[in-house]
């Protein structure tokens, strides 16, 4: 918890590089630190490099060594060698959104000083601020003549998802509820470390550096922070329970949106109507979310036939834009340079997954129909798409004998004759999906029956009404 000079510092912020890169460096060299677009943000004079004990770091920072913890996972995947040295800032990262809310700690301190604020109360909500918390903060600010700062924690890069914008719009609505106060809203660019205790301590430290004297947290967080109050140099106050309030419903934005979509009543007085409307809008119900239908199976199993029939059926239903990413079409337009090695097949499927996830993110339907013979990359695509909307894996399980009997393109015959090498099902593997949402065997069902089953599954999952 301390730097070598004794300063309190809860989370190491390090520059991790590969062994190969570290091996190519000499101490005393200067490195350029650039953002994703190549803009020079800072330079680092390399004074030291060492091999960290990452398991110990994981244990101390994340209280876990389990790689399924996102912070531990990121730590273990980062480079093996840490570099340190004198850091020289060149310029701050550019952001195109909400520039007026992006003040540096020094600018915030100057602002509070210029306005004669001897007390500044900070809130750093993870989600929207609802009534009880806001009233408690305003009450405190009024009785103690304190200024208010709402610090909104955002990621490092350009924002990608609408929850970022929706969260800030929620805060703007909340601020409008107390015209007598002039709270500051500020965005803090910070890579989340998914560490409960240490991250909270770091947040408190950052808030102190922004000129805040008090930090309002939940009673549980208060329990963690109190022990460190002296080191942190900021007073911790907890959200008091306001007697005349309905019992406080503690829900994340996503939980609250499910609550709203399920038609469950949100207690009167829980939040502000504009905030609730914004959350409902940012997290649409499944009926308004995008989804991908991922058909996987052997060549000739009937994927393309199902995909094409499903395309027109969904178009007939209307409502969402639909894109078909058929195996052959993708091979022609997106992946023409790739062959059928495992490595290239995985790249092909990742490309399909990326395009599908972009479509789903924007509320559309992506129908994908590649062979996709490998489990691990199918899993990758599932997680890529699921974070944006629905993912429905359909294993077109028509047996090999039937596919070979059909042999529409004559490729099985070529593979059997040894003219075509590495053909899926003949001399290349197909790993059977373990838990697809649906299995369809086109040797005993018509395309119409297959489509009906897909539509029923979509309806059961809530993505369409059927
Ligand atoms: S993969 O494995 O998912 O990347 O394959 P995909 O992009 O779906 O491409 C499959 C189509 O390519 C033709 N083809 C082959 N398939 C499998 N193995 C080998 N070696 C091969 N060579 C060419 C074949 O026509 C597949 O088309 P479909 O529509 O599946 O029959």
Describe the structure concisely for a colleague.
This protein is α/β, with parallel strands linked by helices and 466 residues long. The protein contains 18 helices and 14 strands. The chain has helices spanning 19-23, 54-62, 70-77, 105-114, 131-144, 162-176, 196-209, 219-226, 229-232, 253-261, 273-282, 303-317, 327-333, 342-361, 375-386, 400-406, 411-416, 447-461, and strands at 15-17, 30-34, 40-50, 81-89, 120-123, 147-154, 184-189, 214-217, 235-238, 291-296, 322-326, 365-369, 390-396, 438-440.
Describe the structure.
The chain has 18 helices and 14 strands. With 466 residues, the chain is α/β, with parallel strands linked by helices. It has three domains: 75 residues, Sulfate adenylyltransferase (Roll), CATH 3.10.400; 163 residues, HUPs (Rossmann fold); 176 residues, P-loop containing nucleotide triphosphate hydrolases (Rossmann fold, 3-Layer(aba) Sandwich). Strands 7-6-5-8-9 form a five-stranded parallel β-sheet, sandwiched between helices. The protein has a five-stranded parallel β-sheet with strand order 11-12-10-13-14, sandwiched between helices. It has a four-stranded antiparallel β-sheet with strand order 1-4-3-2. α12 crosses α18. It starts with 14 loop residues before the first strand and ends in a 5-residue tail after the last helix. The mean pLDDT is 91. It binds 3'-phosphate-adenosine-5'-phosphate sulfate. 3'-phosphate-adenosine-5'-phosphate sulfate binds next to α13 and α14.
